Amino acid sequence: xxxxxxxxxxxxxxxxxxxxxxxxxxxxxxxxxxxxxxxxxxxxxxxxxxxxxxxxxxxxxxxxxxxxxxxxxxxxxxxxxxxxxxxxxxxxxxxxxxxxxxxxxxxxxxxxxxxxxxxxxxxxxxxxxxxxxxxxxxxxxxxxxxxxxxxxxxxxxxxxxxxxxxxxxxxxxxxxxxxxxxxxxxxxxxxxxxxxxxxxxxxxxxxxxxxxxxxxxxxxxxxxxxxxxxxxxxxxxxxxxxxxxxxxxxxxxxxxxxxxxxxxxxxxxxxxxxxxxxxxxxxxxxxxxxxxxxxxxxxxxxxxxxxxxxxxxxxxxxxxxxxxxxxxxxxxxxxxxxxxxxxxxxxxxxxxxxxxxxxxxxxxxxxxxxxxxxxxxxxxxxxxxxxxxxxxxxxxxxxxxxxxxxxxxxxxxxxxxxxxxxxxxxxxxxxxxxxxxxxxxxxxxxxxxxxxxxxxxxxxxxxxxxxxxxxxxxxxxxxxxxxxxxxxxxxxxxxxxxxxxxxxxxxxxxxxxxxxxxxxxxxxxxxxxxxxxxxxxxxxxxxxxxxxxxxxxxxxxxxxxxxxxxxxxxxxxxxxxxxxxxxxxxxxxxxxxxxxxxxxxxxxxxxxxxxxxxxxxxxxxxxxxxxxxxxxxxxxxxxxxxxxxxxxxxxxxxxxxxxxxxxxxxxxxxxxxxxxxxxxxxxxxxxxxxxxxxxxxxxxxxxxxxxxxxxxxxxxxxxxxxxxxxxxxxxxxxxxxxxxxxxxxxxxxxxxxxxxxxxxxxxxxxxxxxxxxxxxxxxxxxxxxxxxxxxxxxxxxxxxxxxxxxxxxxxxxxxxxxxxxxxxxxxxxxxxxxxxxxxxxxxxxxxxxxxxxxxxxxxxxxxxxxxxxxxxxxxxxxxxxxxxxxxxxxxxxxxxxxxxxxxxxxxxxxxxxxxxxxxxxxxxxxxxxxxxxxxxxxxxxxxxxxxxxxxxxxxxxxxxxxxxxxxxxxxxxxxxxxxxxxxxxxxxxxxxxxxxxxxxxxxxxxxxxxxxxxxxxxxxxxxxxxxxxxxxxxxxxxxxxxxxxxxxxxxxxxxxxxxxxxxxxxxxxxxxxxxxxxxxxxxxxxxxxxxxxxxxxxxxxxxxxxxxxxxxxxxxxxxxxxxxxxxxxxxxxxxxxxxxxxxxxxxxxxxxxxxxxxxxxxxxxxxxxxxxxxxxxxxxxxxxxxxxxxxxxxxxxxxxxxxxxxxxxxxxxxxxxxxxxxxxxxxxxxxxxxxxxxxxxxxxxxxxxxxxxxxxxxxxxxxxxxxxxxxxxxxxxxxxxxxxxxxxxxxxxxxxxxxxxxxxxxxxxxxxxxxxxxxxxxxxxxxxxxxxxxxxxxxxxxxxxxxxxxxxxxxxxxxxxxxxxxxxxxxxxxxxxxxxxxxxxxxxxxxxxxxxxxxxxxxxxxxxxxxxxxxxxxxxxxxxxxxxxxxxxxxxxxxxxxxxxxxxxxx
Length: 1451
Prior knowledge:
ATP binding; P-type transmembrane transporter activity; HAD_sf; metal-binding
């Protein structure tokens, strides 16, 4: 969106994201200025080049001038997220077409009418002929401009690419516009786009506009990476220091620093290149695809007779056999191309088993698909995609509704998502097409025909043919032609049945980096910059040290002039002082703690690709967790079942009341049912069983009646006098168990390919739960598509169980007397019991349809009778789907009375619930069965029970969350899953207290619904700015009690934002919003006092009706002891309609964010960062990449796409890795603090020593410098960084502020103490009787008493500083456990003392040290000891008290 309000022709501002603004500046280089720049760079020996490299805006101003954008050959672009400036050149290309082909807003059909009317007014009223084409942007269009925009001509296409978004120059508005939201105005209906691109010229045009359909990342060269790294100011300073030391023959230390720098650069270079390569491999994807391009028809909707006579039927081989170069029918409209050639407007043919991953964003036109959108949502739940409606396609506007994931998610396919199943929908209008065929069967028709095969009739391959005249009639029925009535128009050709009738068709709308996946990749490549406070403060501190160095530089020059030191030595010594105050080894030393932490994390199988983020982990105070695959295991598993059983409080049908008619009605044809049971009358109630799974005590569900053993036991006692009601109830419950198991075995679309289950993950888990086997029908039994059978292990276990039951029954001594009326029932049972079930055959499948929310199967039983395999003559139907749907299709007397309460409890616990129903059918002929509508089959069901799925927590999740809670680190959930599931998981892992009051923010019904008159700029999250939200309390009632129900008053606002589940078959699950309105009062309990309405408009007339308390626009929404939960649409809405103070207050209370899209996750992270949180995001999917990249610390639990974006990747999926990152981060942060303070005090101690010696025109010798740097500083600093992290996370994070009062008091206090002792020993030495002054004023004096005493004292101070600044608990282990540090410190101290007391020897001569008298040696040692005591005492006692007195008592 262009937001350039000042109308500056040289500058243009564009809003790319919610808060990302780029400024485009016209620019032109001036050759004379460029020549001057080169001369100045040479004269300054590259200094000017470095300065302008660090400040690129200065360079641009020096080399050229700003010019109007329309004349600019180059541009420089500024970004509101970063301080960097990008310089780009405008590219040029030839485009044959119209301006309106690129900027389609000028092709609006209503626009011409407006201009015509305005033209008439101009003639009458002499008004200026202008038309407002965009009320929001106030852009006016004249008649001349309109004609220019729609004139066919040869154009020069001017464009540039920024962050992989293509901007094209608009000569009408004289601005650059991104084409990411391009839409062809001709996309008015499905009929208008179904035949694809009009011609090859159109394809060429659009490829010029959009480029190729490949998200290819430009790889930086090794030289570019190297220059970016080594031109950093730190490395430049190191190069300067190395050159200076080499001029002074100080080679050893120079080589050491050089090697450290080279290794550091190499490591960063290697990591950067590998990371970029991984992102490139993830983003770049191409594959063979099939598109429908009917180039031969100039007008696909109207084919004239002349056209038909000119067309020729194509001959050749079908390319369907090979997608890579085999000969194909050149006249075929089905073109096999590479996905890189796709452009918006192409019609993608999605054939079964051909396309696995979508290469572009597309809208379904006909057919439907089930796709796995885990790349976008993180949830591996398959989602059903249905065709778009004409009205939706016509009203589609990417400029206004750029969030197509939310607005068109049910009919849009996204790049990078995986296709699970493809299905054509032509069978849905078969009867209509047949009727049209009959109507036109006598007409003379020379049109070619296409053949359609009913997807649901794959067995009998019934073929329906119809002609183009049918297609014409279908289209003439109305402007809104249905998707299923479409047919393809074309000349007589060799038919391709697979593509014509078994495939889904989709309209390509976005390609390349414009796709949803491309946007995800761009968010990884160009995240919002985060600056950690420690690094900011370190630069400030170094700047202060640099100022101090220049002050010392000036003072040194004054002293050297005073003593008449030669100029060359004067300059060298002064520059030496700068390298003393700002040590070149500082960057390497500061990275010691980080390097050690990385090595420790690597041992824990946590790998880091961004070392700078390690210490950031030490300041984390907010952890955002994805749910699926992070807090919980990947995918769902069956928790168990609640099957139906006979209520023991009710009696069965009395033996005196039953009749044969009742038997026939109550016992539907029960033959071939090996577990056939007595049914109940309407007054006999059923109930849910307790939850049954593999770990439950009652294992009856896993011992069904595969054989007739139990029935035989009943037949053996049929002559007994009576049968107890308990036994009858047990038999009936057994029947329900059998039927529910049969439903779980057959009601699915699972296939077996290469011994692997393929299909909906929920179906696969359900089938595995009962442990049956599955195979495709080999044709031996006609009419069966799939056969399932119990495994042998099940049968063997069942036999054992049956034998036990048989013994128990036969042990009854009491004889039972059966009434004659009941004997018929028992005989029937006995006869049926002689058959042994061997397998179930699936005859027909009514697949899942999202709007019906159910699927069903028709099956036959196969059994052994007298050692012969027999197929049952009777049919049985199993239906599964959303509980409320199955309940509405079931007989009321078969549904338990506590259905609503049971469902509500399960849903509020976050489980996914699927209900199952059953019925029997009389035997009918196969062809009649194939013609039956599903409405005839899916009715009058008998309710069988619930199948419950859960997403179980990972073993370490609860422990990790508890540890974070103890450390007062806030944790929250950010998931794409259902909100109730999220709340349940949060409670289960203690992210939310078990007794906490959780309130869900929801929209008030009827408020804020956008309509045609709504301003697009005021619509967010699917609601206008006038929408209102209220809090709905989430209540969980105990399993063993019935919830107390308080009815919702009519005046209370109702829920409108129903959490729609995925549209795949697995979405038969339900949530609290899925319940019928009539039962809502049974399912949801509300407390009126806790329901509050939040209104942006405090004067809303609805506020008094819906809430006792209304929050105005400026009020703060904050309720103590309450936790909020919200969905992505609510989050998006409040960001745009509430003040920052209100938003912050709500977000601080919110623990669960559900139904969050990838960009919403990223926006949430950035919002918390703005609030001052140090945020970590922990996820495992590609949908988390943006959030992982934007977070201060991103932690991926997967080695796929997420690992590319995240600084940290854990090979272990246990959440303990989060704790490890925090512990090691805190240890590294404290270590870096210690090392920085140590290097600071080292530089200031040495600065003091050198300054005192400079006052005498003396200096430290090279050997002394070498001893200090190589044998004291570097070893001790390295050892300091090897302290291990503390085993427990402290409740308070360490400080990251280097210039805080606490840090400055300690550092400056220690510096003052060390300087005081150095000044003391310096002046004490000059007063001793054995002191001999030197008269050397050349500036190279080393051998003197002042040098010797200062050397010994300063060496001890270097060791002392390391001990003082080595921090132990609560962030690192005690300093005494750092064996290497203790050893090196002890050895260094002993070495200094030994050197102090050594007699004259060659070593002291090499070190250029004098031998002190014994009294001087002892006194110097005493001074060193006192220095140590004072420093340690001050650090432990004095500084804390000073801080306490000045800052006051702290928590």
